[in-house]
Each structure stands twice: as C-alpha cells, then as structure tokens.
Design a protein that fits this description.
The structure is a single chain. This protein has 313 residues and is α/β, with parallel strands linked by helices. It has two domains: 230 residues, 3-Layer(aba) Sandwich (Rossmann fold); 58 residues, Alpha-Beta Plaits. The strands form three sheets. Strands 6-7-8-3-9-10 form a six-stranded mixed beta sheet. The chain has a four-stranded antiparallel beta sheet with strand order 2-1-4-5, covered by helices on one side. Helix 6 links the parallel strand 7 and strand 8. Helix 3 runs parallel beside helix 5, helix 4 packs across helix 5 and helix 7 crosses helix 10. The two termini are 37 Å apart. Belongs to the ABC transporter superfamily. Keywords: ATP-binding, Nucleotide-binding, Transport. InterPro entries: AAA+_ATPase, ABC_transporter-like_ATP-bd, ABC_transporter-like_CS, ABC_transporter_ATP-binding, P-loop_NTPase. This is Putative ABC transport system ATP-binding protein. Pfam families: ABC_tran (PF00005).
C-alpha cells in the first residue's frame, strides 16, 4: 500500500519568478523508512510543509494514507505525527502536561485538570511510552529541567500518542549529543518494528539515512534521484582498494599483468565493483606497505552528487 503518494506537485509562491517545487512525484510505501534530502533552498521544506497540511499546494495530487491533503486535511492530520526541527514544547509545563494538552487538542480525550483525573487508557499509554523512551522518572517534572535529549524524546511520545500511521521527522537530532542521537534512533527503530509506522525523515546528518529503505534527493525544486542508498552509492561512486609498496614499480607492473585497472595518486588506487578486495589482494605477490579498503558512504554519494549538479549549473 502506498502510504504517501505525491504526483506532479507544484508550489508557486506569490511574486516568485519560478515555482519552489516543480512537478515533484514520489511514493512511500506502508512501513517504509524514507529519507528526503536536499541542500538549503532545494524545495525540501516547502514539500514537507505541504505534506503535513501546513502549506497549500498550487497544483498536483498528494494523499496520505489514502486521504487527500486538501479535501480531507483533518483525516490526514489524524494519521500523522510530526517532530519539528525547532522544539514546540511549553517549558513552564511538566512533560506530562505537554502530552495531555496535545492529546486533548487532538480530540483524543476531554481535558482534565490533572493526570490523576484523566482516563485510565490515557494514563496507561503515557506511562507505557515514557517507559519505552526512558523518561518515566521525569514525566512529571518541568520541561525546562529536562536535557535536550529528553525533550526530544518527550516530543516523540507526544507525536505517538494517537499511534500515527506516518511519523514525520524534521531534523530530529539537531542539537543533540552523540549519545542522545543514538538513543533516539534506537527508540524510533523500535517504534517502526512495534507499530509498523512509516517514517519520513529529513536530516543534515546524512549518515542517519544510511539504512533507510529509500532515499530521495530534491534539488532546485525537482526530484533528482529516488532509490535505495546502495543503488545511489553504486551509481555515483566506485569502491576502491588503496595500495602501496616499497617497490611501487613492481606492484604497478603486477597489477597491469593481472589486468586490474589502477591509477596512481598519493598511493595506488584499484577500483572494484564486481569482485571482492580479497580476490584482488590474494593475487598479488609484491609485499604491501599500505592496504586500505574504501567503501563509499551515503554521505559520500550525496556530496558527490550535489557537487556535480552545482558544477554543471
């Protein structure tokens, strides 16, 4: 099932000479982990704002869980959870009070002035999620006394109270330390497994998208690439074995005799695609002084792509 469907989406701002989004199309399947990447000004924020019903489109078709974002905006909002780039918590309230106000605004429960007076279903859900996230001990403390990582986790609890079909994560780990980032991702991955939640991620930490199902790059208002991380790395970059030896001449001659393409930079670089590094190394007799296997990351592929497109502009 297609959980997010976008067909020929166009957004033209008033007085702008060209559309910010120019006929964008992509699909996100149910339960998929989807990354939406792009440089500043590429149309990424505009697209996300339209998908989350906070900005009107100019034209095109957009549905979330089968609901049209304009004609059935209320049903769309019931199906999505959003963690914004900038925190949207009331620091003067307790963590639980932030959750309670959010749940009541969503129409999930009638408002009660205290946690004790709320329905058992609400109280059980809050404490269950607080336990999973790891903030059960601080759930009744003021938000202003919570660390940035805890506040991020609180936002996740709030966004999951209504068990959304789609979770939008807009720069979810910005400003968090490495330990908090890892903890947050462990929890999000657990949520995906437990609830089958579709996750739509935007991030400047490209390594966070390394294990997504599909990565989509938007640039200059248009979709530039949409595929798995492995396909993107394979199409843009080559895997390489970096070698060197005291007898460099002997090594290069041996590589030539074996029919292995190589080039000389600081060291000798042997690209490989359809064979393994072990197959290359095992055929060499020259004693090596340098051996490095370079596996390109998604960030390498992304930067390479953006540099090429900017250079061609």
């Amino acid at each position: 099932m297609s959980m997010i469907q976008v067909e020929n989406l166009i957004k033209q701002y008033d007085k702008a000479k060209t559309p910010a989004v120019k006929g964008v199309s992509f699909n996100v399947n149910e339960g998929e982990f989807f990354a939406f990447l792009g440089p500043n000004g590429a149309g990424k924020t505009t697209t996300i704002s339209i998908l989350t019903t906070t900005l009107a489109k100019t034209s095109g078709l957009v549905t979330i869980a089968g609901y049209d974002i304009e004609k059935e905006a209320k049903k769309v909002r019931d199906k999505v959870g959003i963690i914004f780039q900038k925190p949207s918590l009331d620091l003067q309230l307790s963590a639980e009070e932030n959750i309670r106000f959010h749940a009541c605004l969503y129409g999930m429960y009638s408002y009660r002035p205290s946690f004790r007076l709320m329905p058992k279903e609400y109280k059980d859900r809050v404490m269950e999620l607080a336990e999973i996230v790891g903030i059960r001990d601080t759930i009744f403390k003021p938000v202003k006394k919570m660390s940035g990582g805890m506040q991020r986790k609180l936002e996740i609890i709030r966004s999951l109270m209504h068990t959304p079909a789609v979770l939008f994560l807009d720069e979810p780990t910005q400003g968090l330390d490495a330990v908090s980032r890892r903890s947050l991702w462990e929890y999000i991955n657990n949520v995906r497994k437990e609830y089958g939640t579709t996750v739509f991620l935007t991030t400047h930490y490209i390594d966070e998208a390394e294990h997504v199902d599909q990565v989509c790059i938007i640039n200059k208002g248009q979709i530039a690439s949409c595929c798995s991380p492995e396909e993107m790395k394979r199409s843009l970059l080559r895997k390489e074995v970096i070698l060197d030896a005291e007898d460099q001449m002997s090594l290069t001659n041996e590589l030539s005799e074996l029919g292995l393409f190589h080039k000389k930079d600081t060291h000798i670089i042997v690209p490989y695609q359809n064979r393994t590094p072990q197959e290359i190394i095992s055929r060499l007799k020259t004693k090596l002084t340098v051996l490095e296997i370079k596996e390109p990351s998604l960030e390498d592929a992304y930067v390479d792509y953006i540099n090429k497109t900017e250079g061609a502009a």
